[in-house]
Design a protein that fits this description.
Blueprint: E1 7-8, H1 11-17, H2 19-27, H3 35-47, E2 51-55, E3 58-68, E4 73-89, E5 98-106, H4 114-131, E6 137-142, E7 147-152, H5 155-174, H6 192-195, H7 199-219
Parallel strand pairs: 1-4, 5-6
Antiparallel strand pairs: 2-3, 3-4, 4-5, 6-7
């Protein structure tokens, strides 16, 4: 990596969940924790131990740094499985060509969250660029459930990654914070109290009421 500004890969997931949340994290460095984020952080602490495990023609590489100059992002892969494959790429940890299979660890029940899949696909796209290879799939591993959910890196998902990377870059360059748009997911957001998603709607309603009162006074 050079000295240019790379944006955190994990914030692609935040941008998919809510652009305003991503902007608050990126431009105002706001962070607040709730029960869900605390559980996730604790479980990831047990994963983020940089090491390599070998078993025959298979390796597991933990806590690996990845980046993409094309996307302008960098981050960590919780785990990369590398298996011998004659058409694969070369990595320092193996003396034979390998096929790479990234794995992102998550907490909670097994679920197909688009934001999780975007984060995982972004990791794969970084690896593809770094090692000049192709990665067809990866997996989300849900720690509490001890189950994997395989994710295919199709064109739709790759396009979503590029789109969210562009969104993050634009937010960063313009130092902008999108307006709040209240929805059901706001209830689960750890930044709810800071974001105050209902405040904008309340202010608009208040101004409308003042305008109506002014009109009524003119009619008297």
């Amino acid at each position: 990596m050079d000295d240019r500004d790379y944006l955190p890969l994990s914030w692609l997931s935040q941008a998919e969940y809510c652009l305003r949340r991503a902007a608050l994290l990126l431009n105002e460095r706001v962070w607040a924790e709730n029960e869900e984020t605390a559980k996730g952080r604790y479980e990831h602490m047990r994963v983020h131990d940089k090491r390599i495990e070998r078993r025959g023609d298979r390796l597991k590489l933990y806590d690996c740094t990845v980046f993409s100059e094309t996307l302008g992002i960098w981050g960590k892969c919780d785990c990369i499985e590398a298996e011998r494959w004659d058409q694969g790429c070369r990595i320092k940890a193996a003396d034979f060509p390998v096929r790479l299979f990234p794995i992102e660890y998550k907490h909670g029940s097994v679920r197909e969250e688009q934001s999780y899949m975007i984060q995982l696909c972004a990791q794969a796209m970084c690896l593809e660029e770094m090692f000049r290879t192709e990665i067809a799939a990866g997996a989300l591993f849900f720690i509490s459930a001890h189950r994997r959910l395989e994710v295919i890196f199709n064109d739709r998902l790759r396009t979503a990654v590029r789109s969210r990377a562009a969104d993050l870059k634009q937010l960063w360059e313009k130092q902008s914070i999108p307006p709040a748009e209240y929805s059901a997911k706001c209830k689960r957001c750890s930044l709810h109290e800071y974001c105050m998603p209902k405040a904008r709607t309340s202010a608009i309603d208040y101004c409308k009421n003042l305008e109506l009162e002014a009109v009524e006074m003119d009619d008297i």
